[in-house]
Amino acid sequence: MSQPTVSSYNSMIGGYLKDGQVEESLSLIKKFIFSNRKPDGFTLSMMLKLSNGRISMPRDFGKQVHGQILKSNIEGDDVLFTALVDWYTKNGKVYYARKVFDKLFEKNVQCSTAMISGYMNQGCFENAEEIFRKTINKDVVVFNAMIEGYSKSIETAKRSLEVYIEMQQLNFRPTISTFASVIGACSVLSAFEIGHQIQSQLMKTSFFTDVRLGSALIDMYSKCGRTEEARRIFDHMHNKNVFSWTSMIDGYGKNGEPNEALYLFDKMRRENRVEPNHVTFLGALSACGHAGLVSEGWEVFNSMKTDYMLKPRMEHYACMVDLLGRSGSLHEALEFIKGMPEKPNSDVWAALLGASRLHDNAEMAGLAANEIFKLDTAERPGAYVALSNTLASTGKWDGVTGVRELMKERGVSKGTGYSWVGTESGLCGFHVGQNI
């Protein structure tokens, strides 16, 4: 075409974008801009979608597009404003997203969903509820946004289950995303009975063979302490990926079955040729730590680099320090820390502090605690308490008084300790002296 129109540009850009050819779409957009043609709302909405992808864009790209809309007096439509709200929320600019959202004469469900997701990611649950309640024509996607947002913390996971029930009362059928989120809520709450009911419901759908849901069920049953049920799900999965294996390995490790965890870890690599990721190695190392399997732990840790070219992260180093420390090798743990290629963070020193307290080694506890104090103070009040308790157990009461005075001086306070007990509706927390 000698002179392509705006519509023809839009068709080509949209076609490339829909087909996943992001580079080609971006190249055509640049050509369009340099041709001095005026973009319309559809062009700008595609530019916003493109900037939310894997292409690196300026941090204020959405604001630039927003400014272009205002300067050009482009007539806003649902697609454009939804794309703008979506860009702002995905880039953590919820305030600006709400400004655009409130100017919409008619709030469509896609725009409401983007706004809810943005609020959920910021932890603004009341604002998300407000948008949700005002959304008249709800669909399954907006329900999924609410269920997923609430499912991530113990304080809100119960509400996730309530929205799940409300969704079905309105005759919306759960999707794979719905099941994944609500099973995740059961994991957070350790709500075995509810999770079992959801599994029964899931088995009546065609989603039951989905590997993502199988992995979620394994994780849920493991966190409820039901490794037998988790293993039954694992064994009956037609397809397993690294997440399925990792969930089962981690489940065994955290439920005091390290030999089963290491057996699966070995089987995963040697028989099934599935490459473990960082989380898999963390689960295997944690299992070794709980069982005091030092030689096995070293083998797992070293294989990260030698066999899979994976660079250990801070959590892996912390796991190794915990493993060495728990076994009584405190000086070896300290030498391990000194030999780290990166500066150890507070988690690494906290692992050494915990092990020092376990073995009543006040000198090592003091060393680890001082390193934690250098890194942060108020963020780890438990370090002060652990050091104080270690000094007390060795009869160094002057040191205990000194730590308590230091806490007062630095304004560090330890929050109330809670115990958790499983009930029919999930985990219930309480503290000493509380009436239940």
From TrEMBL:
Keyword annotations of the record: Repeat
One Gene Ontology biological process: RNA modification
One Pfam entry name: PPR_3
Domain of life assignment: Eukaryota
GO terms, molecular function: RNA binding
PPR repeats: 5-39, 77-111, 139-174, 210-240, 241-275
PANTHER family: PENTACOTRIPEPTIDE-REPEAT REGION OF PRORP DOMAIN-CONTAINING PROTEIN, PENTATRICOPEPTIDE REPEAT-CONTAINING PROTEIN
Protein name stated in the entry: Pentatricopeptide repeat-containing protein
